Amino acid sequence: MKISLDLVKIVAQAIYDKKGINILVLDVSGLSSITDYLIVAEGHVDRHVSAIASNVMQVLKELGERPVHAEGMVEGAWVAVDYLNFIVHLFGPGLRDYYAIERIWPQAKIVELDFLEQVTTA
Question: What DSSP designation does 93 have?
């Protein structure tokens, strides 16, 4: 198994590649007993959210990683994919603000995503 942080960055890139928006990675190790990282992002519509999740799972499957559990793939409003060391939360419009799961761990460290810096500064 690859180091969790490497996989987390691969997941963030897979989300970005499918036009996911507002990508945030939080290091909750030491704060959460269930996982080390949370990856939170949004899609434009429910079908887009499901497509992003499918891409994430396909990319990780090619690396030999399988989720422990995935929820919400059919509906697409909120998809959660659990890989134990990290959990991916993908939201449709408006739901991320409503649930605000990233506020559960206000002390969490934000993981810098190098590819996002390259895109925004170019």
Answer: T
Rounded to 10 degrees, the C-alpha dihedral 111/3/118/109 comes to 0
Regions of the chain short of the pLDDT cut 50: 1, 118-122
Characterize the bridge pairing of strands 86-91 and 37-42.
parallel
The CATH number for 4-113, chosen from 3.40.50.150, 3.40.50.2020, 3.40.50.720, 3.30.460.10, is: 3.30.460.10
Rounded CA separation 46/94 (Å) = 11
pTM: 0.90
